[in-house]
Design brief:
46% of the residues are buried. Helices cover 37% and strands 17% of the residues. Helix 5 runs parallel beside helix 10 and helix 11 packs parallel to helix 13. The protein folds into 2 domains: 244 residues, 3-Layer(aba) Sandwich (Aspartate Aminotransferase, domain 2), CATH 3.40.640.10; 81 residues, Aspartate Aminotransferase, domain 1 (Alpha-Beta Complex). The longest helix has 22 residues.
Length: 416
């Protein structure tokens, strides 16, 4: 269904009257540059604001709402588990946590899973695992992890340090030692860094496709060279799959697009379809954590695991990866047509349903301008840097909704 044909839902008056931007801003820390929009209801790929206006949602909570909004499988899992058992400590066995871990292991190269609450926490777990491996196996006393420029790995002190973007570091010094940045998709830079650091490199941490950094896909040859180098040197390869994993690339995991397997990788965002959950996954060869090394109070509790398992099983049962591949090709084709029509567009790139439209560097128009103009016409998009607009709709998006999104963007570009 397109936005035009979706029947507006009943929006209860209390949802409309309770919202006041001034009151909100007087109580909530202003850590976000929020748009002038309050969303109160969602169904499928459509959301409604507090005025009852419908929007086609190509943000999906920033690549998080895997099955869209109010998907029956998610609703059923939420209701069933919340009425059974919400939370217990990891001092005890949580059967559904084991079921979810088994699904993830069966559908990836991993042997073990640690559950947490977010992508940043998942990456923290990966960093800790790599550091312990460095100390206990590689015998490196001051280990260094290589990460890429323009990367994004989270907002905690360790993960913001791992993030290779200085704008995220400003005013948070002293940062965590043990990280070194190299250009993305540049194998020579990896080799030079390893030589320069003289035996201290314990791991290389990369995104298969850089999301926040501008929707930059990894090059197959580069990642295969990095994998071979890691094997030769005994270095761990960590892949941050927080944004690109869980089917968004058209495969379950972004590393499958590159023809390699990581030693450690992370997941969050789409794993829970909107319910907060993260996971650090690894091969047995680097599974050096022991009781007491790492923990999370809420990590892997019955509620979040039941919902995440429902998301995983629905992806598989309904063959949603086929839809991701088809709709991704359709979206890129539509965006390419717009690029031919409008010279201000310099590039269209991506995998599956994570795609970027880049504007010419000398264009007076920025990504945020397109996002705001599209919002006025009922399409939600998200920037990925100053000049890149990101398209990350729910993985259940239809052909008609893709056409609708491209049509709205065409109108936006024509007006500009």
């Amino acid at each position: 269904m397109t936005v035009d044909t979706v029947v507006a839902p009943t929006i209860h008056p209390e949802l409309l009257s309770a919202f006041s931007q001034d009151e909100f801003n007087s109580h909530v820390m202003t850590t976000y540059g929020r748009f002038n929009l309050a969303l109160v209801k969602g169904e499928g790929c459509t959301v409604w604001d507090s005025n009852g206006k419908a929007y086609l949602d190509f943000v999906a909570g920033i690549a998080t709402c895997t099955l869209g909004h109010a998907h029956p499988a998610v609703v059923e899992a939420v209701m069933a588990q919340i009425n059974t058992l919400t939370h217990v400590s990891n001092l005890y066995y949580v059967p559904v946590q084991g079921e979810l871990a088994k699904w993830l292991v069966d559908h990836s190269c991993a042997d073990r899973v640690f559950f947490c609450n977010s992508g940043a926490e998942a990456n923290e777990g990966a960093i800790k695992l790599a550091r312990k491996y460095a100390h206990t196996v590689l015998k490196i006393t001051e280990p260094v992890i290589l990460t890429a420029q323009a990367s994004f790995h989270g907002r905690t002190l360790a993960t913001v340090t791992a993030t290779g973007q200085p704008k995220y570091h400003k005013n948070f010094a002293p940062l965590i030692p043990g990280f070194h940045y190299v250009p993305y998709n540049d194998f020579g830079a990896i080799e030079s860094a390893i030589t320069e650091l003289d035996g201290r490199v314990a791991a290389i941490m990369l995104e298969p496709l850089q999301g926040e950094g501008g929707v930059n896909p990894g090059q197959v040859e580069y990642f295969q060279q990095v994998r071979k180098l890691c094997d030769q040197r005994g270095i761990l390869l960590i892949l941050d799959e927080v944004q690109v994993g869980m089917g968004r690339s058209g495969k379950y995991w972004g590393y499958e697009q590159l023809g390699i397997e990581p030693d450690i990788f992370t997941s969050a965002k789409g794993l829970g379809g909107g319910i907060p959950i993260g996971a650090t996954l690894c091969k047995q060869s680097c599974n050096v954590f022991e009781p007491g090394d790492h923990a999370s109070t809420y990590g892997g509790n019955p509620f979040v695991c039941a919902v995440a398992l429902a998301v995983c099983q629905t992806l598989e049962r309904e063959n949603i990866l086929a839809n991701v591949q088809a709709r991704g090709e359709q979206l890129r084709a539509g965006l390419q047509q717009l690029a031919t029509k409008y010279p201000m567009i310099s590039d269209v790139r991506g995998w599956g349903l994570i795609n970027g439209l880049e504007l010419q560097a000398d264009s007076k128009t920025n990504a945020i301008d397109l996002v705001k103009a599209a919002m006025e016409l009922g399409l939600l998009l998200v920037p990925a840097g100053v000049k890149v607009v990101r398209f990350v709709p729910p993985l259940i998006v239809s052909a008609a909704e893709i056409d609708r999104a491209v049509s709205i963007l065409d109108r936006v570009l024509a007006a500009i």
